[in-house]
Amino acid sequence: MNLALFDLDHTILPIDSDHEWGDFLASTGAIDAEAFRKSNDEWYAHYQAGTLDPVKYLEFALGTLARFPRSQLDQWHRQFMETVIQPALAPAALKLVRKHLDAGDLVAIVTATNSFVTGPIAEAFNVEHLIAARPEMLPDGSLTGKLLGTPTFAEGKITHTKAWLAQMGKSLADFERSYFYSDSQNDIPLMALVSDPVATNPNPKLAAHAIAHGWPILNLFDTPSHD
After folding, report:
1. What's the CA angle centered on 156, arms 127 and 194, to 5 degrees?
2. Are 44 and 50 in contact (CB under 8 A)?
3. Could you point out which of 15, 98, 107, 211 has its C-alpha 20 to 30 Å from the C-alpha of 35?
4. What DSSP character marks residue 218?
5. 198: part of which helix (H) or strand (E)?
6. Confidence check: pLDDT of 51 > 90
7. Of 212, 171, 209, 208, residue with least CA distance to 193
8. Is residue 92's pLDDT more than 90?
9. Computed from CA positions of residues 190, 195, 197, 198, in that sequence, does the dihedral angle turn out positive or negative?
10. Are 191 and 215 in contact (CB under 8 A)?
11. What pTM was computed for the model?
């Protein structure tokens, strides 16, 4: 059995699910759309530049979610899946994930985006295992606005992936081949640990690193996802 890890946003999705969720929330009229979009765009720019403070960002994102009852959030998320995510599911990306699933590989999505936003997206890819930022929840499923543990960002993806494997009594060394598909230089730490890192729709910084290190470059989408 091999291991196949996938970043989500701009890797197997041609969009950033976290940023799009923020825009979707703003479009509902439930929050101050202008102020929220301004903050959302600023955080996204920090992410693209590699200067994001993941804890502060998640406090912003989860704090926004905590304003609303879980039933309302779930209703909005169903609309979000129908109107934003489903149309963005690219056949080439679905085929790539399916190839690993059909081969019997252990497959996981490893994303810095929180599990409330990404859980249904992982299901849309038929991926059982999701390693994502975990929001604190009350017994009724409501979000408190706080983050559980460390963010699944940069080196944090290594920490969480190793912990996930350890729960199954495994480590990276147990797999003949281990793949990690990602678009971003933020994921170079985990990419450097697997046997088969694949720069997927890479941004310029990751593309340069991939070329310098002889990593394969894969483009799943018709148009580049980065400026």
Report:
1. 65
2. no
3. 15
4. E
5. strand 196-200
6. no
7. 171
8. yes
9. negative
10. yes
11. 0.94
